Amino acid sequence: TLVNVDGAIVPPAEARVSVFDRGFLYGDSVYEVIRTYGGAPFELDHHLARLAHSAERIGLALPWDADRTARELGRTLDAARAAGGDPPSDPGAAPWNVGEWYARVVMTRGAGEIGLDPALAVDPTAVVIVQPLQGPPARAYADGVKVVVVGVRHEAPAVVDPSAKTGAHLNHVLAVREARARGAHEALLLDDRGFVTEGSSSNVFAVLGGRLRTPPLAAGILEGVTRGVVLRIARAEGVAVDETSVRPEDLERAEEVFITSTMREIVPVTRLGERAVGAGRPGPVTERLHRAFRRLAGGAVGV
Ligand code: PMP
């Protein structure tokens, strides 16, 4: 693991930001999680565009522009590779996660006098954390995972714009806490009308009558980069797609359910709470889309 703090690349123990940093005090920050395939960041342009969108939505002036961010990410990846060689491989790892890197880019409004007023922030902070990728194990893809619909509600779009990927994630932290207590891999959050929105760190899809269904962006969800890739792939594969609202009952009667994120790619959901999804095994549409995803993202890295 190596950390780039405002352009200085240091080991984790030396990576420091001020306790007056508003990212720490208020979650007043934006971030992206990016992964590599064959050592190269995947869908980097989309991640950088979303970072700019997030910053714009909360009026945060990014300390680095997109080019600088890409350069600093590249430098940090190079340094991590040089320092550690290839990351060790976990025997249970899915082949496409072996020898790859995780990168978290965090930009905060910076430190200043304590107080909510954003004008108190003096100097924005930029951080890039690079470490060996720990994706879901091969087992998660082969057998599927359990997810639960949690009691914690999704952020209302009128309160915090969920299309902005900010560091203020307490409801997602509590959602994961509840999911873990119930033995689940991921938490699905409902909005205040009871519609399914997204996972704590994933987007959700269902196969209903052979058609792919996922909540629309208007549901106030994060525009997942992986979600976008999956929608593109589905259309190219001739799978009909509906971006329409989803109720928990729709997931219960779905033939297949899966979740997507940068770290997960496409992970089949075979249990929803205490019930099996479909046949209780990863389904054919999920497998087909994941194969197409693998061809696109990691053809060189094995299937
Ligand atoms: N929703 C939320 C709330 C998330 O935090 C994430 C993870 N970034 C996602 C969806 C999936 O987005 P992506 O495919 O860009 O990783």
CATH class of the largest domain: Alpha Beta
End-to-end CA span? 26 Å
Tell me the total number of β-strands: 15
* Distinct small molecules: 4'-deoxy-4'-aminopyridoxal-5'-phosphate
Domain count:
2
Strand coverage percent: 25-35%
C-alpha Rg, in Å? 19 Å
CATH architecture of the largest domain: Alpha-Beta Barrel
Order of helices and strands: EEHEEHHEEHEHEEEEHEHEEEH
**CATH topology call of the largest domain:** D-amino Acid Aminotransferase, Chain A, domain 2
What overall form do the CA principal axes indicate? globular
Helix/strand class = alpha+beta
Q: Helix tally? A: 8
Helix content: 25-40%
Family: Belongs to the class-IV pyridoxal-phosphate-dependent aminotransferase family.
Organism: Anaeromyxobacter oryzae
Pfam family, one: Aminotran_4
GO molecular function, one term: transaminase activity
Features:
D-amino Acid Aminotransferase, Chain A, domain 1, 6-stranded antiparallel beta sheet, D-amino Acid Aminotransferase, Chain A, domain 2, 29% helix, globular, alpha+beta, 303 residues, 9-stranded mixed beta sheet, binds 4'-deoxy-4'-aminopyridoxal-5'-phosphate, single chain, 2 domains
